[in-house]
Amino acid sequence: MTAPNPDVRDALSRTGAALLRSAEIGRGLSLAEWQNRDNRARYDRPDHHTLSLYLEGGEGVVREDGAVSGGGPDKLCLLPAGHESRWLIGGRLRMLHLYVAPETLAYQAVSALDVDPRAVSLRELTFAEDPTTAMLMRGAVLPLDWQSGADRMALGSACHLLLHALLRRHAGRGARAVTGGLAPAVRRRIAELIEVRLAEGLSLEVLADEAGLSTFHFAKMFKASFGVPPHRYVTERRIAKAKDLLSKALLAEGRTSLAEIALTCGFASQSHFTRRFAQATGLTPAAWRGAA
Known about the structure:
Number of helices: 11
Order of helices and strands: HEEEEEEEHEEHHEHHHHHHH
Radius of gyration: 21 Å
């Protein structure tokens, strides 16, 4: 068995494909626009999901491991984490890739759609027709300046819409029984507790006590139920609340300071808030407010 290649980007770079531009949109979410010609590519169990849209060309591409052809502009490929595939690239093509960490997709399943991530699995697609998703990638992602602070908010919003489209249109649900993790009632209670107490210094012990579990077992079962570890989930909910408060502050003519928003959302300081917000969104809170 060959050693896994954890990154589709690395695999493409080794083939000599030209990276036209790329951007990190936030933790576990990134974009790349590629150009390739008369080549071969092989993906060996990457550790992230890849959504690929053909922008130009692709008619001469063959997926060799399945003897599948039929590429072309606006055709989609969805390659889940852990998949294996081999590609013969005939002719010239240009394509747009969205890379998604499994934890990031799992968090979106929980937070945006209230779906248990244990019951969700992405379907593998090759040369699929999906005009809605293709239009979103072409119309809302491609025209933006990926490095411009003025476009970063719109870019992040468009990428999250793509995540929701993946979950709604290309994820199987209920194919297997949901086992392990927190009981549904406990899961709801923990989520509600986190929302109510975001401003406080929430600890693993407090959450574990609410669930009636040891910290070790709670952390393990929380990740099974929410798709991410407790500290990551709490941070993401704080970031979501901060975005909401930043928007409201704009409507109130900016009377709420960044320091006040940091404390309200449970960050230790404004600098801590700025660092975490930038990691999650690619923008500082001040830049986010300025770009809105």
